[in-house]
Specification:
single chain; alpha/beta; 15 strands; about 55% helix
Length: about 550
């Protein structure tokens, strides 16, 4: 529950320190005194929109903090623990706004983003504003109130998640189909490139072999000349050749070895050299005999080599990379051409996710239908108590699986009949201003009983209500305050008198500046304030007596 509220330099509030208790606390004051200013400050502390106009004139910044007791609030405690912000059994929210418009948020002294302040605030307190009856006419607010009462947050979350999954899969499918159209154009281009390479049909290591053969054939004349010269020097030159010289030297070495045993190994060594030269000469002569160039072979090699070089330039790759480039193009086409298969798989996935969403949406619909029946009875009964004896209330729930949304497939409409014989129609078409206020209040009080937040604020929700109806409203809120902390800003004495405690808002002007204060009232002061609300500026014995009766009746 909300235990303490501290407001400094907020609008016309210089400083406000407010201790709050369990039960129902009513807040009253003269018109224009700023009865809702504490609620506005608290809303800021809960993550509401910050504006520079909120900073008190002449001050540097606004500072608002709210301390909450976490007793019996497991949801808030768990949230704080999950976000590593838990600090005992108390939680302090704080918000500052500089006159330049800079805003900062804190939870238990730690700076946090505004989104976290809002997220936690929803678990600590629930504010019902004075314009709630206007919100009641909006269909999105109606379905929100039904879901709030139904308490199926996990089911709602699952439905929203399955809807998002379906949307994501559907978007991916649309993108895949769009890409598929683009792929067809790319495939045509690649197939044209591939056709040239297929016609060439280059083997993996063919270019290296082709390059060597091209080099050999292109230099056949030079090869023959050098080869013939080498053969001549080795053996064929009659005047002087290497083999004759070695044989002559070998003859001398044999003679030397006969004269000195130390030289006996030399002739055999030279003989090996002679054998090597003879083999070399034989190989060169054989190569020379076969070096003749086949013109057709030469033309074929030249043509194929030129094709490889030309295609390599065309595809911006090195000639020795042309084979791997060819294979890569083939794989790329296979990948792009498999898009139809992928589309079919993705279409099946989209259908599967849609079925899963509809299954969750149907579960959500059944839960809503169950609690809608419950609410119909409770709200109709509450409307009867609020001087609408013949009124009927009904929640129309229309399920259409072809109308998917994050909230399922339901459309919700609050219908009402305020007079006998009158058909049920949308609230906005039937109810008058006063009736709408009473219906709104009945719905808020009933749905509030199912809300997990331990604190509820009703900010002038009793507008348009008076007399005996106001007394019933007061009793309703007091009964709600027996189990939940209720803060109620009101102008009705019948409601104010039902509070377990009462605060009075006063506005004073001093030294050209206006200040608002909020003061707790004792029993005697409460009687005087209730008498003022009953009789206006003139307080009589009668109004005082009536005020006492209001307190006693509570």
């Amino acid at each position: 529950m909300l235990a303490h509220l501290s407001v400094n330099n907020f609008a016309i509030v210089k400083s406000l320190q407010l201790e709050l208790s369990k039960g129902m606390t009513t807040i009253t004051g003269e018109t224009g005194a700023g009865k809702s200013i504490a609620i506005d400050a608290l809303s800021l502390c809960l993550g509401g929109r910050a504006e520079t106009g909120m900073v008190r004139q002449g001050e540097e910044k606004t500072d608002v903090s709210a301390a909450f007791s976490l007793d019996n609030n497991l949801n808030a405690s768990r949230w704080l623990e999950d976000n590593d912000l838990l600090d005992g059994t108390e939680c302090i929210l704080r918000r500052t706004i500089s006159k330049e418009g800079r805003s900062r948020a804190f939870i238990n002294g730690s700076p946090v983003p505004l989104s976290q302040l809002k997220s936690l605030g929803q678990l600590l307190i629930n504010i019902h504003g004075q314009h709630a009856h206007q919100q009641l006419m909006k269909t999105e607010h109606q379905i929100s109130m039904l879901d709030q009462y139904s308490g199926h947050a996990s089911l709602l979350s699952t439905t929203r998640k399955t809807y998002q999954d379906w949307c994501h899969a559907r978007n991916e499918l649309a993108q895949l189909k769009e890409n598929s159209q683009q792929n067809q154009a790319q495939i045509q281009l690649l197939e044209y490139q591939l056709k040239e390479l297929d016609e060439l049909a280059l083997n993996e290591d063919e270019f290296m072999e082709l390059e060597q053969e091209h080099k050999r054939l292109s230099n056949s004349g030079e090869l023959a000349a050098h080869c013939q010269q080498a053969v001549d020097l080795l053996n064929d030159n009659e005047e002087c050749n290497a083999l004759n010289l070695l044989q002559t030297i070998n003859h001398h070495l044999i003679s030397l070895s006969e004269l000195d045993d130390k030289l006996t190994g030399l002739p055999s060594m030279l003989s090996e050299a002679v054998i090597q030269l003879e083999e070399t000469s034989s190989e060169l002569r054989l190569y020379l005999d076969n070096i003749d160039v086949d013109p057709e072979q030469m033309a074929w090699v030249e043509e194929r080599y030129s094709k490889v070089m030309s295609l390599a330039r065309k595809h911006y790759v090195q000639p020795d990379e042309l084979y791997s480039h060819h294979q890569a193009l083939r794989k790329q086409i296979e990948t792009l051409d498999s898009s139809d298969e992928k589309i079919q798989e993705r279409e099946a996935d989209v259908e599967n996710k849609l079925r899963h969403f509809r299954k969750q949406a149907e579960k959500l619909h059944k839960s809503r239908a169950r609690y809608a029946k419950e609410l119909n009875k409770l709200i109709s009964k509450s409307m009867h108590e609020l001087s609408m004896e013949k009124a009927k209330f009904s929640i129309q729930l229309d399920y259409d699986e072809n109308r998917p949304s994050p909230l399922g497939c339901d459309s919700v409409s609050f219908l009402v009949s305020t007079n006998p014989g009158q058909p049920l129609q949308a609230i906005s078409k039937v109810a008058s201003g006063g009736e709408l206020s009473r219906i709104s209040l009945a719905i808020q009080v009933i749905t509030a009983q199912k809300v997990d937040t331990p604190s509820l604020i009703f900010d002038e929700v009793d507008v348009g209500i008076s007399g005996p109806t106001a007394a019933i409203v007061g009793k309703m809120l007091r009964q709600l305050g027996e189990s939940t902390q209720v803060l109620c800003v009101t102008h009705l004495p019948q409601v104010a008198g039902c509070g377990h405690q009462q605060l009075f808002v006063a506005k004073n002007s001093k030294a050209g500046k206006t200040e608002t204060q909020m003061l707790p009232l004792n029993t005697e002061q409460r009687i005087e304030e209730l008498a003022r609300l009953l009789g206006g500026s003139t307080i009589t014995e009668t109004t005082l007596a009536n005020a006492k009766e209001l307190l006693i009746a509570a």
